[in-house]
Amino acid sequence: MTPWLSIVGIGEDGLDGLSAAARALVEGAEVLVGGERHLAMVPEDGRRRIVWPKPLRAAFDEIAAHKPRRVCVLATGDPLCFGVGRMLLQRFPIEEVAILPSPSAFSLACARLGWSLPDVETLTVHGRPVAALQSFIQPGARLLILSAGSESPAAVAALLRERRYGRSEVTVLEHLGGAKESLRSSTAEDWPDDPVAELNSIAVDCRAEPGTPLLPRTPGLPDAAFRHDGQLTKREVRAATLAALAPVQGQRLWDVGAGCGSIAVEWLRAAPRAEAVALERRSDRMALIAENAQALGVPRLAVVAGEAPAALAELEPPDAVFIGGGATVPGVFEACWAALRPGGRLVANVVTLEGEAALLRWRQEIGGALTRIAVSRAEPVGGFLGWRPLMPVTQFAAAKS
Ligand SMILES: C[S@@+](CC[C@H](N)C(=O)[O-])C[C@H]1O[C@@H](n2cnc3c(N)ncnc32)[C@H](O)[C@@H]1O
Known about the structure:
By secondary structure, the chain is of the alpha/beta class. The protein has three domains: 5-102, Tetrapyrrole methylase, N-terminal domain (Cobalt-precorrin-4 Transmethylase, domain 1, 3-Layer(aba) Sandwich); 106-205, 2-Layer Sandwich (Methyltransferase, Cobalt-precorrin-4 Transmethylase, Domain 2); 223-399, Vaccinia Virus protein VP39 (Rossmann fold). It is 26% helix and 25% strand. It has helices at residues 20-28, 36-39, 60-66, 84-91, 105-113, 152-162, 235-245, 262-270, 283-295, 332-339, 353-366, and strands at residues 5-10, 31-34, 48-51, 71-76, 97-100, 121-124, 142-146, 169-174, 182-187, 200-205, 252-256, 275-280, 302-305, 320-323, 345-350, 369-373, 376-381, 384-389, 393-399. Strands 13-12-11-14-15-19-16 form a seven-stranded mixed β-sheet, with helices on both faces.
């Protein structure tokens, strides 16, 4: 039996572009739901129409009240590709919903450009900050970006110029699949000031200028990639720390005493659907964390003001905890370990003997591994090169069963 609720993806070609099955759902529905643009594609025939309010969720009770009458939601393209489908499925179980997708804007853009969909990064700035694109800007990368509106292509071009990717080819694809479809390309450097349609998507073929720093998403970015006041986990130690924390999609990190936020930033870059909270008591450092999160493409990093252990009680339980400062503060370790979810990892780095004494006690209590990381970097000594040691770091890593 066809479920009472259907979500039909519709393109710029309107009802004519729908399959027979999708058309039957639209025609057979007693209630139609959608944005003004979508509902305008169906001639008025006296059926009940619900225009999406803001926020969309505000209409969900009314939709539910119509059950078991047939309700058809009209959505753009593929409803489960950055569309209303995801939110509707948080309220209505999939068993009650029939979803009939049309090609997404990504598929249509690939078809026009001759790009293979699995070879491109599929991104959006619709309702999300443009800064979130940063970590995907890599030499040779191809990006497809859903727009927030007519201003988005210029904002993307500006970001590329800032990152010294001005030579990238940017294509704006307007009204894909409709009578008003149009494609225009330029380099980010020469991006023209011409008006762009509200409905557009953006394609970027990333090309770096010579000498542009390479910022991969694997942990261990150069120290110079971060703004800091000296409180930075150095590159080699940072890479080893992230390896022990093991970033996993969907998991949450607490970066306790985050300094400039480098560990949380790299956790989020490594797993684009992971979460992180940076806890920091100093407001000047909180500002640095926020700045690094923006510049390195993870504006979703939650920066929380406060002192451990007291402030930890307010946070959602973590899957991984990094204690970069505060290993000797009474109660910090105990609070982190207690909050950690099963399977979670706790990693603590110290450089003092007092810190080491604390780590040894923790190891005796709960097991885990102690590792000493001693890094020396070759630096000029007079006219020669000599090893300059960084302070050795003792690292404790334990997993909770
Ligand atoms: C909320 S998203 C919905 C995406 C949709 N679910 C899909 O599969 O294409 C809306 C954004 O998709 C892009 N988009 C959707 N249809 C488009 C079209 N026909 N031409 C160009 N861009 C389109 C625009 O960037 C628009 O702002």
